[in-house]
Automatic annotation (TrEMBL), chains A, B:
Homodimer. It comes from the Bacteria. This is Glutathione S-transferase. Keywords: Transferase. GO terms for molecular function: glutathione transferase activity. PROSITE patterns: GST_CTER, GST_NTER. Residues 88-222 form the GST C-terminal domain. Residues 1-79 form the GST N-terminal domain.
Length: 230, 230
């Protein structure tokens, strides 16, 4: 069994867990506090970022998009119509664009700030940046959520799945991200019906179940978080 | 001929130009001001980020890592020992990790801030964020440069090329980034001899020449910028 260094409130880690889940492969999970900069973890990934996969032979594979490509090359290409990547270059480029959208753009404009201020800071020692939440950062992130939901709603309303006719990495990257914002009660689903229908389909998949059981200390999820009929 | 929307002071754009240059393929270049959010450009890439390649059939391929994968799939795989990617999955994962290091981590900790404050702001209307440079942002970015140079120096001192025995995308991503910092006179080469030797090898390549001719209005490059014997 391969090992994944992850955090339940890290969107990129959730994306990787969903990908392995869809391929029916279990992972040994090691929870890593991303702010702690643990020495043994920095030896695996000097950038200190999550997720890191220990692949065959305990070789560290660093970063969600790098892991996704590795998983496709070593597993996905054999999955035929269950492959989470397109068969053609242009289709793969669209999937990669959307993975970057959620794991880089949404992350840097929304997710990272809300998770840091609302989830991490209360557990961080002040020497590592802990303290009271920065309400201006929370306000800015909340203002940015709207355009990301609107874009997701547009994609979900004009395509079968976010990147085209088949479920792909793009859906898992989006779902990994939105599921964290949903845990935090930050999503207005009523305003975004197509996104909601799409999320409901993803949420019902067996691979999603472990994510719905994730809990973080001191912060309960929104009431509808684990509800398949939300 | 394919078209690339780029900016001469955007590291990710330089990386893509180097990759096409190494494969001996000319690009039509269209300079895009990343802060302008031009409507026609947003239609190609709603994220508004650079670079964007118009591939065969004018399909937009968005983002440096997405373009790099596309170029490898459509060109690189045929290049044998000139391929800028490894032949095996673990080798490709290491190249991708280093591309992310320079184009995501160095970008967000160093390059983006120095370019915004020193290059873009004087040309930006105040309605789009222009104004006088933020000296605290410049100071923070300069403090961060050191560890990125030190890491590059370590890689260059322990391997033939940054990701292993062959020149790869990793070298081009690093060179695209460092060449911008070098234009701005921000690099202390004397302290980083192995990185300097590596950069000197990259800088002498024919694919690098167009970058050495890049100039931005109102800001001359450091005296040694285009000097192959710096």
């Amino acid at each position: 069994m391969l090992t994944l260094f992850h955090h339940p409130m890290n969107a990129a880690s959730r994306f990787v867990r969903l990908a392995f889940g869809e391929y029916g492969e279990e992972l040994e999970l090691i929870e890593e506090k991303p702010w702690a900069r643990r020495k043994e973890f920095l030896a695996l990934n000097p950038a200190g970022t999550l997720p890191v996969l220990l692949a065959e032979g305990d070789v560290p594979i660093v970063g969600a998009n790098v892991i996704a490509e590795y998983v496709d090359e070593t597993r996905g290409v054999l999955k035929r119509d269950k492959r989470l990547f397109a068969e053609d270059s242009i289709g793969r480029a669209e999937i990669r664009r959307l993975c970057d959208w959620y794991l880089v753009k949404t992350e840097s404009e929304v997710t990272r700030h809300l998770v840091r201020e609302r989830v991490f800071k209360p557990h961080m020692p002040s020497s590592q940046g802990g303290g009271s939440p920065d309400s201006a950062a929370i306000r800015a992130a909340r203002a940015n959520i709207k355009q990301h939901l609107k874009y997701t709603n547009w994609l979900a309303g004009t395509r079968d799945w976010l990147a085209g006719t088949r479920m792909s990495y793009a859906d898992l990257a989006a779902a990994g991200t939105l599921s964290i914002l949903d845990y935090l009660g930050e999503i207005d689903w009523a305003e975004n019906g197509a996104a909601r229908d799409w999320y409901s389909r993803i949420k019902s998949r067996p691979a999603f179940r472990p994510l719905l059981n994730d809990r973080v200390r001191g912060l309960s999820p929104a009431a509808h978080y684990a509800n398949l009929d939300f």
